[in-house]
Each structure stands twice: as C-alpha cells, then as structure tokens.
Amino acid sequence: MGQCPCFGSSERERAAAEADRLESQDARAKAAEAAQRRQEEYDKSAAGRAAKAQMKAMKESKTANQGEPVLKVSDVKRLSGFDFMNYGS
Questions:
Q1: Is it the case that residue 85 has pLDDT exceeding 70?
Q2: pTM
Q3: Quick one: average pLDDT of 9-31?
Q4: In sequence order, what are the residues at sequence separation of 6 or more whose Cβ sits closer than 8 angstroms to the Cβ of residue 43?
Q5: Greater pLDDT, 82 or 35
Q6: Residue 85 forms part of a structural domain
Q7: What's the number of domains the chain is made of?
Q8: Rounded Cα distance, 58 and 56, in Å
Q9: What is the DSSP string of 4-68?
Q10: In a domain, 86, yes or no
C-alpha cells in the first residue's frame, strides 16, 4: 500500500535521490583523482619545474627587496613630457 503524496515523498523518489547523491559523490571523487594525476604530471613536466623555480625565485627576491619600491622615479616632470611613441626612432 502506498502513501498519499501529500504526506511526503514516496520510497521510489527517496531511492532515486539517494542514487543521484551516490552518483554525484562518485563523480566528484573521480574528478578529484583526475585533477591529482594532472597536477602530478604537470609538476614532473619541464613547464611545471620552471614555474616552481620561478615562484621560488620570486619569493626569495620578495624577502630581499622588502620595503623597497620596484620602480623609482627621480624626476616626474621630466617623464611627463617624454614622448614614448617616438622613442628610439
């Protein structure tokens, strides 16, 4: 004997919802594993090693230059009249 639909979802609907939840959980787990494999492959590649070395160099230079501005401008008035379009021609 079935329940009246006004008193809640039927057993079939609950089972379908549980199946969907399990399927989504499985898909997320597979996606996480694939992402982990891609990350490991990238880390082993030349581009991954270069990026890691660049990040390390940036961190080291950041601590060495702490508090120092990257670009120092001594004469702003002289730069404001500079014609960048015709520079070097």
A1: no
A2: 0.49
A3: 92
A4: 49, 52
A5: 35
A6: no
A7: 1
A8: 5
A9: PGGGS--HHHHHHHHHHHHHHHHHHHHHHHHHHHHHHHHHHSHHHHHHHHHHHHHHHHHHHTTT-
A10: no
